[in-house]
Structure prediction request, 531 residues.
Amino acid sequence: MKRSKRVLPAGAAANITVMLAAIACIPHSQAADFKLSGDVSEAVSMNLQDPPETPQNDKHKLSMARTTLHLNLDATVSENISFVGKVRGVKEVNLGYLKDLSNLGANSADGGNLVDQYNKSELREAFVDFKRDLFQLRLGKQQVAWGETDFFQSMDMVHGYDFTWRSFLEPANEELRKPLVMANLTLQVPEADGKMQLLLRPGKWNRHDSVGNTFDVIGGRWANQPNKGVDFRGAPGLPIAPYNYRQSGADAEDDTWGIRWSGSLKEINYSLSYLKTFNSNPVISPAANLNFLTAVGAPVPLGTPSGSVPFNGTTPIGLAGEIIYPKIDLFGVTASGYSATADAVFSAEVSYIRDYAYNYGYASGLSGVFGPGFDGIKQKNLVKSMVRMDKNLAFTQSVLGTEKPAFFSVQLFNTWIKDYQASENLVQLVGFGQASKQHSSLLTMILGLSYANGTVVPELVAGHDVTYGGGFIVPSVSFQYGKNWRFKIEYDHFYNNGQRTASNAATERDTALFGYFAHNDQLFAKLTYQF
Prediction:
C-alpha cells in the first residue's frame, strides 16, 4: 500500500507554506487590517430507532455530542492584497453508543476507537487574494462551488465531501466539502458580460484523501444499514478493502484542473465548464481470486467462481480488494433566469461525465461471495441533469400567518447512463443488489417560513427517489436570539422501498439510496454562539 505516513505531513507542509507566503506578502512598512471572527457550537443527535446491528437497545441513546469551534481571520493588506484563514476544531464525547459500535469492530483498521475518527481539527482554508484591474488570483487552500445546486451533487464536483460524521443532512456544505490547495484565476471580460475562471489543483500539494466523497465504511454512526460496527478496510495486519489513493488511473497525486466561463445573455445567467477530476463516489477494485477466504481460514465453497477483474488489471492492496476513485472528465452547462409569467426563478444544469465508474456483478465471481458488485468496475458515460424552481408563496401570509411570503424550492435530478445494458448488472453501491437503471430521478423540495422578524424559521425539507423508491422528510425550526445566539432542532426521518439484512445480503435486489439509511431516524439539535 502506497498510502504512506508522509502524506499527512506533506499536506500540512503545503498549508504552512501557504500561510507563510501570505505573511510574506504583507509589507513590513504597512500595517494590515485584521479581523477575527468565529463561532462555537454544540450539536447533539439521538437515535429514534434501534439499529439492529447492536445487541443493546440503542433507541433513544445519543449518537453524537459534538463541540465545534470555528476561527476565521481576514487580513486586508491593501486594495489589491488580502488573506483569509479558517480553522476548525472538533471534539466529540465518547458516548455509550459509539462504544457499542467500537466493540462491534467500528474503526478496527485504526485501532478500534471510533471517536478518534470524529475528533479531527484542521486548517480548513488559507489563501491569498491578489487583485489587479480585471483579474483576481487566489492561491492556497480554498473552496469553490460550481453549478446551480449543492443539494445532491450534479455538477458541483470540484471538491469531494466528507459524509462520515453527518451524512448529507448537514445544510452547511462548507462544513462537508474537502478544501483543496489550488490556484484559482478569475478574469473579467466586460465586453462579453462574463468572466473566465481557471482552476489548477497540484496533486502533490494536497492530502491524498481530499479527492472524492468519503462515506462511512468504518462502521460508525452513519454506516449503511446493516454495516454498523463493520470496518471494511480491515484490521491491523489484515487489510480487507483499504483505500488506495495511488492506483494507476486513480492517483490522487495527479494534477487536476478546470475551466469555466460564466456570463449573462438577455437576463439569462449561464455557464460553460470543463473539469478534470475524480469519481465523486468510491468504487471497489476487487481481488481476482479468493485469497481473502483462505487468509481468514474460511472454507471456499465448492464451485465458487472467481474471475473478478481488478481495475486496470492491477493487484489490489487488500485481500478482497481496494477502495479507489478513478479519474473522470466533466463537461457542464448551467442556466438560470426569472420568469415573470410564473413569478419564479428557474435554474437548470446538464453535465456530461465521461468514464464514470460503477461496480458490477451479481451472484458471479466474488459477487457470489461478498455481495453484489465485486466482479469489477465498468466505466460509463453519464448525462446528469437538474431543473429547479424557486418561488415565493404569498398565500402563506394569510393562511399560515407568516410575516413574508414563504420560500419554496423544488428540484428534479436525473441520471442517464449512456450505452446502458441491463445484463452488465451495474449496482448502485457495492454490496447492495439494486441494479442501476438507464434513467433514474430524484425529487426534492424545500419550504421555508418566517416569523418574528426572521428570528423563528420553520422549514420542511423532503426528497423522494422517483425510480428506486424511498425518501426522507426533515422538518426543523431555527431560532435566533440577538446577534450572537442560534438554535436549531430537527427531525430526520427516512423511508425506503427495501433494505438489506444479514439473511438476504447476497440475494436482495431492492435496497437503493434510502434503504441504506434504514433504522436511522434521528432527532438533531444545535446551539451556536457567534462572535
The domain at 7-530 is CATH 2.40.160.10 (Porin).
